[in-house]
Amino acid sequence: RATALALPDIAARKGKDPLVCLTAYTTPVARLVDPHCDVVLVGDSLGMVLHGLPSTLGVTLEMMILHGKAVRRGVEHALMVVDLPFGSYEESPAQAFRSAARVMTETGCAAVKLEGGVAMAETIRFLVARGIPVMAHIGLTPQAVNAFGGYTVQGRGAAAERILEDARAIAEAGAFSVVIEKIPESLARRITEEIAIPTIGIGASPACDGQILVVDDMLGLFTDFRPKFVKRYAELGEAAQGAVAAYADDVRARRFPAPEHVFADKPKAKAGAGA
Ligand code: KIV
Ligand code: NA
Fold first, then answer.
1. Domain boundaries for CATH 3.20.20.60 within the chain
2. The pTM of the whole model exceeds 0.80
3. Residues 150-172: pLDDT tens digits?
4. Whether residue 44 has its Cβ less than 6 Å from ligand 1
5. Which of 1, 42, 161, 174 has an alpha carbon within 20 to 30 A of 33's alpha carbon?
6. Which CATH class is domain 7-234?
């Protein structure tokens, strides 16, 4: 899995074997997920997952660039995508270009992701025409949480047509793929069948061309919310809590450090002791 994936490799997976995508915000986690993934996303979910913010709205371009640089050092194989944060692109195509160019040049990522459908089509077209590949994000777009009034399922009933319009608009504008979040399966299938670019689902059924999850969610490290669409593949948060409690007990009982963790006056004559 040494070869690095490029944009055409991702586009070519439309309708073929599913695209495997996860988030990463740090070098060690990027190294962990990279060999298994087609796309590694530095998501603005890092605001909530890493920085304790109440939503993604407070995430800045500087935060995205800092974490993007860290992730870049851990990615060799997957296509690396970085989210444009709230307020850094919506004002105009020119503002979006300035932000996206900074993200690309300072992090070395291959593409940016932004939220919005019809309203962002002109911006997507502007960026793509100027050398910036764009992944779109429609359905539940968390940066619009205040407009939605919560993280509720989108596109049920008559609202399906609007999201279908969003999908058509971003595909026509030149996005190379699209995240579709928290929509019913029937709509995800219609979008996936209708547009020519890969759809990457999160809470959007197996009908999509790929799947993405927030890595801290699927590892059980971030447990403030438990969305229905997350499958927990591990309970690392619980394991870490147990480890920290055991350390605290050991220190209080003077069981740690034990003799093997202690330095003597003279180095021992053992090879590789690191004394
Ligand atoms: O910010 C994020 O992690 C995302 C993915 C969940 C798609 O946008
Ligand atoms: Na995001």
1. 7-234
2. yes
3. 999 999 999 999 999 999 999 99
4. yes
5. 174
6. alpha beta
